[in-house]
Amino acid sequence: MSDLTRLSAAQLAEKLTSREISAVETVQAHLDRIGEVDPAINAFLHVNTDEALRVASEVDKERSLGDAMHPLAGVPIAVKDLIVTKGQPTTAGSKILEGWHSPYDATVVRRLRDAKMPILGKTNLDEFAMGSSTEHSAYGPTRNPWDLERIPGGSGGGSAAAVAAFEAPLALGTDTGGSIRQPGAVTGTVGVKPTYGGVSRYGAIAMASSLDQIGPVTRTVLDSAMLHEVIGGHDPHDSTSLTDPVGALVEAARNADVKGMRIGVIKELQGEGYQEGVQARFNEALDLLRQAGADVVEVSCPNFKYALGAYYLIMPSEASSNLAKYDGVRFGLRVVPDGAPTIERVMGATRAAGFGDEVKRRIILGTYALSAGYYDAYYGSAQKVRTLIQRDFDAAFTQADVLISPTAPTTAFKLGEKLDDPLAMYLNDVATIPANMAGVPGISVPGGLSDGLPVGIQFLAPARQDARLYRAGAALETLLENTWGGPLLAQAPEIAGVK
Amino acid sequence: MTAETAEILSFEEAMEKFDPVLGFEVHVELNTRTKMFSSAPNAFGDTPNTNVTPVDLGLPGVLPVINRVAVESSIKIGLALNCKIAERCHFARKNYFYPDTPKNFQTSQYDEPIAYDGSIDIELADGTVFTIEIERAHMEEDAGKLTHMGGSTGRIQGAEFSLVDYNRAGVPLVEIVTKPIVGAGERAPELAKAYVAAIREIVKNLGVSDARMERGNVRCDANVSLKPKGQEKFGTRTETKNVNSLRAVEHAVRYEIQRHAAVLDAGGTITQETRHWHEDTRSTTAGRPKSDADDYRYFPEPDLVPVVTDDAWIEKLRSELPEPPAARRKRLQADWGYSDAEFRDVVNAGVMDSIEETVAAGVKPATARKWWMGEISRRAKVADLEPAELGVTPALIVELQGLIDSGKINDKLSREVLDGVLAGEGTPTEVVAQRGLEVVSDDGALLEAIDGALAAQPDVADKIRGGKLQAVGAIVGGVMKATRGQADAGRVRQLILERLGVEG
Is residue B284 located within the same domain as residue B327? Predict the structure, then answer.
């Protein structure tokens, strides 16, 4: 394995800027690593070899001319295949978009290109980001680098696994109910869901518009902050995008100190339903934070217990409408049934063949929840719960600067274990969903191992206070790495089957 | 006529038995530079699928952004219809699958329209005024356009395939919805036409729409129901879709009243449904059944933030509103001193604006009317043009009338001068000189002609001497003939009387 793939984005940036290493060798090292391990991991749906190398060689040329460049210029990145990219396929993990090429770049992709960050390829996901294990991808599951028999989380399992397996130093994910943070937790990586509106959604294929948010997937908190600063900030193409400047996130990550910080432990997001090992790592993290001078208090968010139920009404409702456009008329798969088909039959056959079971399940749920006579009871009630969750957060943030909980109730489960039990699968997101419902930002940082599998610790902050996540997250990262004697991923086993 | 044609009752009989209740949904396409939610051009008649962005095609990942100008145009329409303007309103998604709708939902306002609770006074031809209550005016986006190929009718039935053009998809629309209109009675068809005409005039006057019905800029869905005389409860309504000319609105409402009346009179029931208007047969046929429970699964559009208005913005827009057409007409009629009949003729002839400009140029209102309703309208008719399209400018009329007032030409000659000007022979003065049209003002020459005429008709001369002054006309006629019309008839008459020693 090349040493370059073991470096963080911040370290690569430094060496690239000083021209100690070239962007081409950096990209090539990662492409080689992908070639080596991805047959076992299946993190990538598409590898963008030629373009990534071309961009890298441009970076090297411009640097050699002494041009001022973005610090991350030449640092490669993987992009979740829910985010559209010109010149590469975008599938959303679905057969219905197989072979489709977007004629436009997502705003975040445009910003990566502006920073001259070579895009290594597109990463695997649950179809249309619907799932917690990446098993619902139409292109086969991604495997957890810590144990190839286990899931890498979802929906962004591909991005998390790629970063955990050193195939990419950075990746982009999307988080609707935990799809960045939960994969981060179970792969021992860092994942951030920014404040709703903090990163443009333009070009992120919508699942649930009021919940979706693009964010960084990395191996260190500092790397997430650096990437967040690249992709964040107002975008006139997204009406829900905040006009605030993105903020000094890198500075916050470098100022890793929790002394005097009030950290609220969410009473409702621990205990019953949380694996023993997860709870143990969580409690140890709290001890470390206390020792470092944090003021750890308990807060109660009584309405969080309704979050999962409300989420499974709002998310499918919006998804049922967002996914209506996949009808075979303008793009993507078109299935023409025998006989003299009407447009209704073409649409029906296309959707029947193109969508997987989980997608169909959510479309049906959402269609039902929005239908006349049920709207008030389902969608309407769910929106009220959302307001209550918002109020719980408001109250909690009067007592604490940031909140803390385990990111996911369990470590990575085995492939196939929950595939036939959607409700058990949905429970994986119980701790991550409240942040999406209220639009507040969250980060998952590695919290240690339980039976050899990573555990994630989640911090949540008030809306627009993403900087607090980086400060608290980086502080905990430092405290824990001191106890481990290095990054958690250094303890990951070599990927089986790789010679 | 096809077999689909329904039985109808005569309009008179229908009116004896039933009271009609009307309701209108008028869609107005705004003439913004770009579309409602994208930067694609809002233009008519371009090559199909060229005025589109990824947003208009509903490609994966796209997001809408509200067009501020479209919101301002909608507020202006609301203000012109005396509506309240919402302080805060949002868009919703109306979900249904149809290939002309790229996202398979329409982004539209649902429970929170930008404008609501308005009213508009509609004046009928005889001056009767009906007040029509406006329930709401809301913003939405237009659909694309389907063209059905391979069939003989151009309709979807029998077509082999259909083509879709998304140039129109996303064009901003304002839908203006009335409250039920009761009490129009036999004036219902006339009121229907007048209402749509008024909406078209208002949006055109505001400058927010091209308002060309033949291009679909203004489209009317007409709801009709009947209730037996004396009954309070409304009957079942039908909605005749896309009635796209003023004349068709009148005919469609009349037809539906007659059709409903026949069904109800025979003891039948009206099916709540949409109807299609057929201009060729001047009748409607059944469309799809429509019930109040149509399930569009509306929910608030999560990709858009609410539209928030404030007083300063609304007042600024209000201050930009042009004078309402009805108020302007009232003011002009009073200023000009025209009778109701005269003014109505002016309006119907489409020369009100021209007269206003001509009066502003210094011509007396009565004179301006005489020109525009007379010679100019006549020439326009011959040329198959609108009077204003003939190229007659207020300055031209000022000059022509000046030549008449100074006695240089008379009315009859002025027509020839106008012809010369319109033929491009120059200004009125130049035409007079070139064609030699100036009146004979040399009394010597006139007296010679008068003497000739008197000599030719000695019996008439005697009658005049005998006090029969009305006989003077015959001698004047003779003089005019001799001078080829180039004499001032008043002066001629005066000279004849002087010549014969008769007191005028």
Answer: no
